[in-house]
Structure formats: structure tokens, C-alpha cells
Design goal:
The complex is a heterodimer of chains A (about 525) and B (about 375).
Chain A: H1 5-46, H2 49-82, H3 85-119, H4 126-155, E1 160-163, E2 168-171, H5 174-178, H6 181-211, H7 216-251, H8 253-260, E3 266-267, E4 271-277, E5 290-296, H9 299-305, E6 311-312, H10 315-320, E7 324-326, E8 332-334, H11 338-360, H12 364-381, H13 400-429, H14 437-463, E9 468-470, E10 474-475, H15 485-520
Helix pairs in contact in A: 1-2, 1-4, 1-6, 1-15, 2-3, 2-15, 3-4, 4-6, 6-7, 6-14, 7-8, 7-13, 8-13, 11-12, 13-14
Chain B: H1 3-25, H2 27-32, H3 42-53, H4 56-73, H5 75-84, H6 86-106, H7 115-142, E1 146-148, E2 162-164, H8 177-202, H9 208-241, E3 244-247, E4 261-264, H10 267-274, H11 276-299, H12 304-323, E5 328-330, E6 340-341, H13 342-345, H14 349-359, H15 361-377
Antiparallel strand pairs in B: 1-2, 3-4, 5-6
């Protein structure tokens, strides 16, 4: 069976669609769950009914998103099997464990205590309810940790070895996967982006109340907490983003090059602020990569190597190899060319193929000999295994415009949110929010922008990893299921319609709840 | 027995207990089928959506964890069944996805589709979701049309490890009588448990609507409960008379992972009899179900938990018998030697061991869920 390119495209589209819808619902729950904990703690300490009402109002918004997040989340989990069956076997030994542990340790905690938080106001004591709210927040964020650990492993596959007998990668070091630098940076960056989204959404809803001159006390107090929460989240988001950039530079240099539109590497490389990419640019022509470009000198070298004068490889360098670099453990290495990586990947794959052929023929002595040889080749070359499926250097380059522009949008919007949050906190502190109507409108406009910002982050992470499902080990084309593209396109359309209906219904209900306000919620 | 094989058996047991809990917890789905017909007015519908709406997340989470555990411990099953029987699993997914938001959305104003549409979604989930899950599990006994070769990953042009050999992609499994029979059993089981739970919960709710609902549930229980027992017996007869497939661990070709697959008449019955504790658990489960249903139908006593325990025990024993004793738990009807066994489909020793440590938390999780369940069921305000 020869896989058509359209199957890969269809499978990617379907997964991207599900993941992007999932990320419309989940981030709010990550941050809002913590804000709920804070509001309810205020209620528990002060015994002021105002804080109870505040908690109840925001928990209603949380619940609407929670249901949608759960609905899209289960599809993601099952799509690994339905659409990525080769992937599921090839790395299920490693990738499945975080998913299972997430279910046992986090998802049960989240859903069980969510039920108490949402339905239990009149059924459990105040202390028990408060504990349930915090446990919901813990479960929600712990759940994100395990999922992001699994995703991080796809970006930086540590703690694994290839077993030629079973024909798959196997886990050899659980803790190195759970606490890899990629996992830690991705978790902190992703969760903080969820916190930022929650802060912006809370501020925007309250801004609308202030524009309508209603629920003023509720809005002022919610904004006060949300803006401080947002500023703290932003600072952590910035730090974790810087760290994520460093880890990407060390583990996925091609992704970093695509993020920057950097074709020719240089020492003391600048980081691009704003630019227009030249559509005629390819890795092997002499065109200028940018039509227009404003850069910050030395920024990229500083981000990638913590040194202003260091060399950052471009797309061409990564394909041609030959430059020296320090890996994430600080060990100096010489980069291999694409051709060399393909050669090594093919050696590993062919050695395995010889073993498989003898095994199929039930020629046991020859199979054992081939296995011993395959082990030697695999030990030396497995880290380039995926290159054995590729034949053109262009195949290793992710979509540069999508990665580049998504990264810029994310960064520029991030900067905007910092200024916005500082202003919000300041205006709130001076009790002059109502005086600046433009700012209240800006707050409302910020809601779609913060979601665009979050989605762009995921686009950078996932499109930038192409053509790999698992960095350097397994390309997309070797990961998909044996279904036809038409089957996948059909389910794509079904899911697209379903998710869109779900989103519209969710928004209509949420708007209605917001219109009712904290006083209109009945429990 | 090697440590590796012990862990393979252990993880099959964990997946089986999750599967058994899932079947029990699908009483929520069963309860949803009462929205049309049993509930006669909006107040009664509200009672049903309140009592079942406070529990749907646990069923859902169990399904997600079941999927995660199956992926982590037997990735080749995940790859072969999900990737092969594509449409069956997509339909199962869709039938569960529409449940997730229906409870939250149905009673809200301005909910786009209207309450009735969300109630229909809940009904679809209650009927189609349970039947399709039964069909999927039924294919463990009847097999699937697939080919599997792990070493295909080494072929650049033809690298699919496992694939379905017909174009129906799993839809045809619905037409296999034994699969459909199990589907109906799971549906009737869910509905019976849903009725029992309705009776159980209506006792705690004051008012005429709750009383009427309880009475109607009790009268419907007679048909549903009896049908469940009859269809269940029919499935057990089919199961015990079926030819099963086993890996021949005594063959010189068996290497601890792969080996020749051989057919064995009455293999599931043999497994149940050769591992006698399984038979005991199974019979105990059946007795609990019969006593539970009998007490409710004949004496009018609420026995949701006793019947539920019976369902868990019986399903647990059946699921164990599908995989233990060297059985092929998912055989290939295209080429029997491509069948899945615990030996050839499991994760590595290291992964199974790591997850075994994690599984120590399972009793703790079950304990806090039970505690919360009890606490949240204490009072009812509808």
C-alpha cells in the first residue's frame, strides 16, 4: 500500500482542527480554575456572600468551557489510534504512559472535584467545597502537565531506545521524559498562556459590565485580582518563553530557523522584530529572505546560546551541516549534513529490514545474525532513523511563512498584553477605569486577540516540527493509519461542523450567562 | 512465569477492571434513554437530568482512562483496532462527544439547538453509544479483518503496520450477529441499571413527579431486566460455544513475543474452567445481578449497588477470559497468525513496570470517587 500525500494532509488537517478547537476551550479552564480558588478562598476567610456569588458566577463560565474541552479532548486521544496507527505502535510504549497516568492521577481528580465545586454548594461544608475547588484547579493543571509531557517527548524524544525485535521505540527512562527540559519549558509556557487568557477574559467581561454601568463592585474587584494574576502570569510566561526558545534552539534548530526565516546562519545573529518574507526565497537560491525587516541586533544569538557573538545556524547550514554547536548538555558536536543523516537513517532501516526478511522466512540462525548486526547499526544511527524515509532536503523544512508569521503575531500580541495588563492594573488601582471608555472597549477586543495569540503559539510548536511527528525519528508519512484520504476528509467535515456548532452554542450560552450577570445566576 | 508476562496479565486485568467499571457506569447512558417515554413532563426530565447529569463525568473519565490504559499497555491493539475499524470507533466517539456538552447546555437559555435536540443527543448516546461499545468489545470474540506486520515500518513505500483488509473499515462489525448481540446486552444492562438508579435516587426526592417516575421506572424494569438477563444468557452461551484462538506457547517457534496461533473449540469456556477463580467471580456476579433484579422486581427493594456490583464482577471475569490463558484477545479473520495476544501487543517490560507503580494509586482514586459519590448523593435538591 503506497500512501498518498493527501492522506497525510487529511490526517494533519483533522488533528489540527481538533487540537485548535480543543485549545479554544481548555486554556480558560486552566487559569479560571486558579482564579476560582482565589475568589473562594476570599469567601472562606471573609464569609462575605459577595465572594461566594463571584465564585459561582465564574464557575458557571468555567463549566461551559469544561464540557467543551472534555468533548474535544477525548477525540484527540482517540485520533492517535484512528488516524495515527503507525505512530501508536511505534511509540505507544512511551507516549501512552503519560496519557494513562493523566487519566488516573489528574483527570479523575479534575472531574470528581469539579462535580463538588459545581453542584456541591449546598451539599458539602464550606471547607470541603473550598478544597474541592483547589483540587479541581490542581487536577486541571496536572492534567495539562501529563499531556504536555507527552507532546514534549514528540519534540525532544529522550529516555527511549529502539528495540529491533519489536520494531518500535521503547521507554528506558521515565523520569527523563517527565522532567525533560522541553517538558518543563513547554508546561510552564503553555499553562501560563492559559492563565493569561483567563485574566484577559475576566477583565473583558467586567469591562463590558462597566460600559453598561452594572455590577460595578463585582467588576472592579474581579479586575483587580485578574490584572495582578495576569501580570504575574505574563512575567512567568516571558521567562518560560525565553527558556522555551533556548530549548528549541538546542533540540530543534530547524524550527528556530523557520521561526526567524533564517536561511544563512551567522554569528551575532539578530532576532527579527517585524518583517515581510520574500516569497521567492528558497534555501538554495541567493534571494534576500526578507522584503522588509526590522531586527534587534544579537537577539537571536543571545536567545539560542546565551551569548551575543555565538553562531546560530540557518536552514541552509542545517541542511549542509559541517558547523559546530553545543548540544543541550553542553557537549560540542559537529552538525551532520542532510545527506549524511539520510545515509545513517537508511543504514538503520535497511539493517532492520534484513532482520525482518529473515524473520519472515523463519530462517532463525540468519535472523539472529541479522539482529545482532541491526543492533549495532541501530545503536549508532537510530537518532537519524526518520531520515531514512526522506529523500529531498526540502522535506525537512517546515512551512516557513506560517511558522514565521505565527511567531511574530504571538510575540507582538504578547507585548501588547503586557502593556494592557499594566494599564488595567493601574487604572483599576486609581479607580479610573470607567473614565477611559476606549480602554474598556480595548479590553473586549483583547479576548479574540488573546486566543489568536495562544493558537499561534501552538502553530509555531506544531508546524515548526514538520515533517516530523517525532523529531528526527518518525516523519508524518510513516505515522498515519491505513485508511483512505476520503474517509479522513469525511470525518474532518463531520468534526468541523460539530465543533463549529459546539463553539457557537458555547458562545451563545456564555454570552447569555454574562448578560445575566452574577445576580442572575440561580443555584 | 516471567515478570514480563505477569505484568502483561496484570495490565490486562487493569484494562478489564476499567472496562467492567465502564459498563457499570454506563447506567448514566441507560438513564438517558428514559428521557423519552419514561419521563412524562419537564419536571420529570429535570429529575432525570439532575440525577444522571451529576454522574456523567465519571463515566466519561473512565472511558478516557480506559482508552489511555489500553494505549499505554497494549499499543498494538490501539493501533490495529482504532486505526482499522475506523468508522466504528468514530461513531463511538461521536456518540459520546454529543453527551459531553448536552447536560451542560440543555437547560441553558439561548443554547442554539433547543433543549429537545440536546435531549435527543443524550438519547443517541444512551442507545447508540452502548450498543456500539458492545459491538467493539464483541469483536474481541468474533475477530476483525486486519493484517498486522510490525516490521512494515522498515518499508518506505508500504509502511503501514496494521490495516483493515476491507473497505468497510469496521462498520461491518455491526452486522456480525454475536457483536450485535453483545451490543444489545450492554444497552439493556445500561438501561436496567439506569432504571435501578432512578428508583434509588427518587427515594431521596420529595414530590409527586419523583414518585411517579419511580413507579414508572419500576414497571419498566420488569421488561428491561428480564430482557437483559435473557440476552446476557444468550451471549454467554454464544461465548462459551465459540472457538477461540490461542498462541501456542509450547511451539519451538514461540519466542516470548510471537508464536503460532491455533484454534481451540470452546476456548473461552476452557479458560473460565481452567482458571477457577474466574468462574467463581463470574458466577458471583451473575448471582448478584439475579438477586438484585429479583429483589427489586418481586419485593420492590432498591438494589442498584448490588446489581451494579454483579455487573462489574461478571464483565470483569468475561474480559479477563478473553485475554488470559494465552488467548488471542483480538484475532484476525484475514490471517489468523496476525492475531493480537498479550505477548505480541503489549508495551515493554520497563513501561509496564513503571505504570504498575502508578496503578497503585487506582484504589485511592476509587476510594475518593466513592467518598464524593456518597457525599453528593446524600441530599437532593431538584
Amino acid at each position: 500500500m503506497i500512501l498518498a500525500t493527501s492522506l497525510e494532509t487529511a490526517s494533519r488537517l483533522q488533528f489540527a482542527l481538533t487540537a485548535m478547537y480543543h485549545w479554544l476551550f481548555v486554556p480558560l479552564t486552566l487559569g479560571l480554575s486558579v482564579l476560582l480558588g482565589i475568589f473562594e478562598t476570599k469567601y472562606y476567610i471573609s464569609k462575605d456572600e459577595f465572594w461566594k456569588k463571584t465564585t459561582q458566577f465564574w464557575s458557571r463560565i468555567f463549566a461551559i468551557n469544561f464540557a467543551c474541552g472534555v468533548a474535544t479532548g477525548i477525540i484527540l486521544e482517540f485520533e492517535f489510534g484512528t488516524n495515527w496507527s503507525n505512530y501508536s505502535w511505534f511509540v505507544g510504549d512511551i507516549f501512552g504512559a503519560p496519557l494513562a497516568i493523566e487519566g488516573v492521577f489528574a483527570f479523575f481528580m479534575e472531574t470528581t472535584f469539579f462535580a463538588v465545586m459545581y453542584f456541591g454548594w449546598n451539599k458539602v461544608s464550606k471547607g470541603f467545597h473550598l478544597a474541592s475547588t483547589w483540587l479541581t484547579a490542581l487536577g486541571t493543571n496536572l492534567s495539562a502537565y501529563w499531556i504536555l509531557a507527552a507532546n514534549s517527548w514528540m519534540q525532544y524524544p529522550v529516555g527511549t531506545e529502539f528495540n529491533p525485535v519489536t520494531g518500535r521505540s521503547e521507554m528506558v527512562d521515565f523520569w527523563s521524559i517527565v522532567f525533560s527540559p522541553m517538558t518543563l519549558s513547554k508546561f510552564s509556557h503553555t499553562v501560563m498562556s492559559g492563565f493569561l487568557i483567563a485574566a484577559i477574559v475576566v477583565i473583558a467581561i467586567c469591562a463590558w459590565y462597566l460600559l453598561k454601568k452594572r455590577d460595578v463592585e463585582f467588576s472592579h474587584k474581579s479586575i483587580k485580582y485578574a490584572s495582578v494574576f495576569g501580570i504575574i502570569s505574563f512575567v512567568l510566561l516571558f521567562i518560560s518563553g525565553d527558556n522555551a526558545g533556548y530549548v528549541v534552539a538546542k533540540t530543534q534548530p530547524m524550527k528556530l530557523a523557520a521561526m526567524e526565516g533564517l536561511y544563512e546562519g551567522q554569528e551575532g545573529a539578530p532576532i527579527v522584530g517585524v518583517a515581510l518574507l520574500n516569497p521567492k526565497k528558497t534555501y538554495d537560491n541567493q534571494e534576500d529572505p526578507y522584503l522588509f525587516n526590522i531586527s534587534i541586533p544579537y537577539g537571536l544569538s543571545l536567545l539560542a546560546n546565551r551569548s551575543c557573538s555565538s553562531f546560530v545556524p540557518g536552514i541552509k547550514d542545517i541542511i549542509e551541516g559541517g558547523y559546530t554547536y553545543k548540544d543541550i548538555n553542553g557537549v560540542e558536536q559537529t552538525a551532520l549534513s542532510f545527506e549524511e543523516k539520510v545515509k545513517r537513517g537508511e543504514m538503520a532501516r535497511r539493517a532492520l529490514n534484513v532482520y525482518a526478511t529473515f524473520k519472515d522466512k523463519k530462517d532463525n540462525p540468519s535472523a539472529q545474525q541479522a539482529l545482532a548486526e541491526a543492533k549495532v547499526y541501530l545503536d549508532e544511527n537510530f537518532k537519524y532513523f526518520g531520515y531514512g524515509f526522506l529523500n529531498k532536503p526540502e522535506q525537512t523544512i517546515p512551512n516557513v511563512p506560517i511558522t514565521f508569521y505565527s511567531f511574530r503575531v504571538m510575540i507582538i500580541l504578547g507585548g501588547y498584553f503586557f502593556i494592557f495588563l499594566i494599564l488595567c492594573w493601574w487604572f483599576g488601582k486609581k479607580k479610573i477605569l470607567e473614565k477611559y471608555k476606549w480602554f474598556l472597549y480595548l479590553a473586549i477586543i483583547s479576548v479574540p486577540l488573546v486566543y489568536i495569540c495562544g493558537e499561534c503559539g501552538w502553530i509555531v510548536a506544531e508546524v515548526g516540527r514538520q515533517p516530523w511527528t517525532i523529531q528526527d525519528l518518525l516523519p508524518i508519512k510513516a505515522s498515519v493509519s491505513g485508511v483512505s484520504a476520503s474517509n479522513v476528509y469525511t470525518t474532518f467535515i463531520i468534526f468541523a461542523v460539530l465543533f463549529t456548532v459546539l463553539l457557537v452554542a458555547e458562545l451563545k450560552i456564555a454570552f447569555n450567562q454574562i448578560k445575566k450577570g452574577p445576580d442572575g445566576i440561580k443555584w | 512465569m516471567t515478570t514480563y508476562h505477569f505484568l502483561q496479565l496484570y495490565w490486562w486485568a487493569i484494562v478489564s477492571i476499567l472496562g467492567a467499571l465502564l459498563v457499570f457506569l454506563m447506567f448514566v447512558q441507560g438513564g438517558q434513554t428514559l428521557l423519552f417515554g419514561t419521563a412524562k413532563n419537564d419536571a420529570q426530565k429535570k429529575i432525570l437530568t439532575t440525577i444522571f447529569g451529576h454522574k456523567w463525568e465519571i463515566t466519561y473519565t473512565t472511558l478516557v482512562t480506559f482508552g489511555g490504559a489500553a494505549f499505554a499497555s497494549f499499543p498494538l491493539f490501539y493501533s490495529t483496532s482504532f486505526g482499522g475499524a475506523y468508522w466504528l470507533w468514530i461513531l463511538i466517539l461521536l456518540s459520546f462527544v454529543i453527551q459531553a456538552f448536552s447536560y451542560e447546555f440543555r437547560s441553558k437559555e439561548n443554547n442554539l439547538l433547543g433543549t429537545k435536540v440536546y435531549d435527543i443527543f443524550l438519547l443517541i448516546n444512551g442507545v447508540a453509544g452502548t450498543i456500539l461499545i458492545g459491538v467493539a468489545v464483541g469483536s474481541f470474540v468474533t475477530g476483525g479483518n486486519f493484517m498486522m506486520d510490525k516490521m512494515n515500518i522498515t518499508n518506505v513505500g508500504s509502511n503501514i503496520i496494521s490495516y483493515w483488509t476491507n473497505d468497510y473499515k469496521g462498520i461491518e462489525l455491526i452486522a456480525v450477529p454475536a457483536n450485535l448481540l453483545l451490543g444489545v446486552v450492554i444497552f439493556l444492562c445500561a438501561r436496567t441499571l439506569g432504571l435501578l438508579y432512578t428508583i434509588n435516587q427518587c427515594e431521596k426526592i420529595a414530590g409527586e413527579d419523583a414518585e411517579q417516575l419511580s413507579q414508572r421506572a419500576a414497571s419498566r424494569l420488569i421488561i428491561s431486566g428480564v430482557a437483559f438477563v435473557l440476552f446476557f444468557v444468550a451471549f454467554v452461551v454464544v461465548l462459551f460455544l465459540s472457538t477461540g484462538y490461542k498462541v501456542d506457547v509450547n511451539s519451538p517457534l514461540f519466542n516470548g513475543i510471537d508464536g503460532p496461533i491455533v484454534a481451540e473449540k470452546y476456548a473461552y469456556l476452557h479458560t473460565m474452567l481452567s482458571i477457577w477463580p474466574l468462574a467463581v467471580v463470574f458466577l458471583l456476579g451473575v448471582v448478584c445481578v439475579l438477586i438484585g433484579l429479583g429483589r427489586t422486581i418481586l419485593m420492590g427493594k432498591g438494589t442498584f449497588y448490588l446489581t451494579g456490583l454483579g455487573v462489574i464482577l461478571a464483565v470483569f471475569a468475561i474480559l479477563l477470559s478473553l485475554g488470559w490463558n494465552d488467548m488471542s484477545y483480538f484475532h484476525s479473520n484475514t490471517d489468523i497468525n496476525n492475531s493480537l495476544t498479550l505477548y505480541n501487543s503489549s508495551s515493554s517490560l520497563y513501561t509496564l513496570k513503571t505504570m504498575a507503580y502508578a496503578s497503585i494509586a487506582v484504589p485511592f482514586v476509587i476510594a475518593y470517587i466513592a467518598y464524593i459519590w456518597k457525599k453528593m448523593s446524600a441530599k437532593k435538591e431538584i
